Amino acid sequence: MAALMAHTTDTIETLAARIASEKPIRGRREPRETVDVAVTSVSPNGRYVEVRLAPPTSLRLSHTRPGQYIVATFADGEPRFLVLANAPGQAWSLLVEPNPELAKPLAELASGDSLTVSAAEGSGYPEVSADERLVIFATGSGVASVQGVLEHISRMERAPETHLFYGENDSNDFAYLRELKSVEAAGIAHVGLAADGEFVQD
User: Fold this and answer.
1) Would strands 114-118 and 92-96 be described as parallel, antiparallel, or unpaired?
2) Taking the CA atoms of the chain, what radius of gyration do you get in angstroms?
3) What is the pTM of this model?
4) 14 or 105, which is more confident
5) Which of 1-5, 42-46, 103-107, 143-147 bottoms out in mean pLDDT, i.e. has the lowest?
6) Does pLDDT of 180 surpass 90?
7) Which residues, in sequence order, are CB contacts of 155 under 8 Å at separation 6+?
8) Which whole number is the average pLDDT over 175-201?
9) DSSP notation for 60-122
10) Which of 5, 28, 64, 90 has the most CB atoms at less than 10 Å from its CB?
């Protein structure tokens, strides 16, 4: 789960109207086009597995905002909705939880294999300006979309004041620890981590 709040001049009514008017890229009954893309790496990341992909340019251009997702089909044949954990314009990264259903397909996936994926879908998170304050709460694999946001704002000429609160059950579970320490050291975001009985809201 991930939640993102931005203090803007928009009223709640304006934001609600904008969300309600968003149109899907693909109609409900329209078939989803998929492409086989190359897997460049598969590696542990906290309690998760990070899968990096090298999509063709046409597919990569479908990713325009942090928080968008793709549909990926692993060796078990089941399609899964996964958020893109990278900034738009970059090689694609997925953070996958190796639950009992996915443990075997993930263990068998390796660099050089291919994965069947769709174009990026969803409206993603709204754009933020440098004059806004960004407050982000994430737990579990929801941090994947947060990673995309942090990459995105780190590329801005002037980043908004950003505070991230991220929770996991155990202190060994955190994903992207190296990246989180890096953005905090660079002054891009203030990072608070909660685990071992602590609650992220506290």
Assistant:
1) unpaired
2) 17
3) 0.82
4) 105
5) 1-5
6) yes
7) 87
8) 93
9) HTT--STT-EEEEE-TT--EEEEE--S-TTSPEEEEE---TTTHHHHHH--TT-EEEEE--BS
10) 90
- What's the chain's length in residues? 202
Contact 42, 64 (CB under 8 A): no
* Phi-psi map region of 57: left, alpha, beta (phi>0 left; psi -120 to 50 alpha): alpha
Residue 132: how many CB atoms within 10 A of its CB? 15
> Cβ atoms within 10 A of the Cβ of 57, count?
6
Greater pLDDT, 9 or 53: 53
Residue owning tokens 């608070």: 192
Question: Residue 160 in 3-state DSSP?
Answer: coil
**96 neighbors 43 (Cβ within 8 angstroms):** no
Please say if the pLDDT value at position 24 is more than 60.
Answer: no
Distance CA(169)–CA(38), nearest Å, equals 33
Q: Give the residue among 24, 43, 42, 53 at the shortest CA–CA distance from 117.
A: 53
